[in-house]
Amino acid sequence: MNRAQPLASARVVFASSQDDRFPPANTLDGNPRTFWSSTGLYPQDLIFELDPPATPAKLVVHTAKVKALSVAACPAGALDAGGDLDPFDTLVAIDLPENNTATAIPLKLSRPVSHVRFTVSEGYSDYCAVFSVVLE
């Protein structure tokens, strides 16, 4: 993949928490004033489906109050007998400074992926925000 591809061309298929005022789809809308908010407790997950599957070189996220996060991906066509995604391979786990905003995370993928899982494992407060998620 040689050009930036916003995940807006995909969709959120899972979020571990839901607040109707700050829904997970806000991470894809391109509006810097909207965001997804966790509802407390960690870890918090967002899973994005990529259609068509892609091999991005990096993930750029804009967050607030995220202390630690990880990114995992599921290879295209990797469904188990029950139709569940299997396996998710962890690509990277990083710690962020308290004043985090936009962070570019290099991804080393050898094949196209159909799903990306973004996990906030720890926050600087009870709640965190994810403003945007973009693949490049």
What does this protein look like?
- The chain has 136 residues and is an all-beta fold.
- The protein has one domain (9-135): Jelly Rolls, CATH 2.60.120.260.
- 0% of the residues lie in helices and 49% in strands.
- The strands form 2 sheets. Strands 1, 3, 5, 8 and 10 form a 5-stranded antiparallel β-sheet that branches.
Q: What are the main properties of this structure?
A:
Jelly Rolls; 5-stranded antiparallel sheet; 0% helix; disordered N terminus
Explain the layout of strands and helices:
Elements: E1 5-6, E2 11-15, E3 36-37, E4 44-54, E5 58-64, E6 66-75, E7 89-95, E8 102-106, E9 113-123, E10 129-135
GO cellular component, one term: cilium
Organism: Allomyces macrogynus (strain ATCC 38327)
Protein name: F5/8 type C domain-containing protein
List the total number of helices.
Answer: 0
Report how far apart the termini are: 7 Å
Q: For the report, how would you describe the main beta sheet?
A: 5 strands, antiparallel
Low-pLDDT sequence parts: 1-5
Strand content: over 45%
CATH class type: Mainly Beta
**Total domains:** 1
Please state the structural category.
Answer: mainly beta
So, the CATH homologous superfamily? Galactose-binding domain-like
The arrangement of helices and strands along the chain is: EEEEEEEEEE
The rough form would be described as globular
State the oligomer: single chain
Binned, the helix content reads under 10%
Q: Could you tell me the number of beta strands?
A: 10
Radius of gyration: 14 Å
CATH topology: Jelly Rolls
Arithmetic mean pLDDT:
87
The CATH architecture term is Sandwich
GO cellular component, one term: cilium
Organism: Allomyces macrogynus (strain ATCC 38327)
GO biological process, one term: intraciliary transport
InterPro entries: Galactose-bd-like_sf (IPR008979), IFT25 (IPR033558)
